[in-house]
Amino acid sequence: MIQVDLNSIAIDARGLPVVLLKPSVPRPDLRVFLPIWIGGQEATAIMVALEGAVLERPMSYDLMARLLDAMDARVEKVAVTKLEGGTFFAEITLDTLTGQQVIDARPSDSIALALRVHAPIFVAEEVLREAGIQEGELTDAEEEEQVEQFSEFLDTVDPDDFRG
């Protein structure tokens, strides 16, 4: 497993949100970004966590974090573990009173939770090698344009769309 950082969140050419993960420690043999396409609500949840924004009502991921805290459990790590048929799979590893528990999850949910509880994010090396984009394939201008497009999306989204 390779520890990664959330490098950026952007909108692709089709208008779909994508997170870009990058190894935390540069490796000459693995200079890649891993793009994972996610839903709009998950993208908003990730941006809220990145900005440290406090909403009037908790989002699902805030609720998850509070529930884990109330149960004396903590997120040890999240990991993108495999890629099958174009779908990424992830796991959330919890440290609980009854021992370690591993929960199947979507990468977008895992990342949104990890950002809230400050848990490390990992990706299986074979997933990075299979689905990663070589550094340099995405120009600074393209990355900047994607970030700008996502910012425009956030400007138009209504927070009430995400209230339960």
From TrEMBL:
Which superkingdom, per the lineage? Answer: Bacteria
Give the matching PROSITE patterns: BFN
Pfam families under this entry? BFN_dom (PF02577)
Q: Where is this region: Disordered?
A: 139-164
Q: Where is the composition biased (Acidic residues)?
A: 155-164
Q: Domain BFN: where?
A: 1-135
This chain belongs to the protein called Bifunctional nuclease family protein
Its taxonomic path starts at: Bacteria, Bacillati, Actinomycetota, Actinomycetes, Propionibacteriales
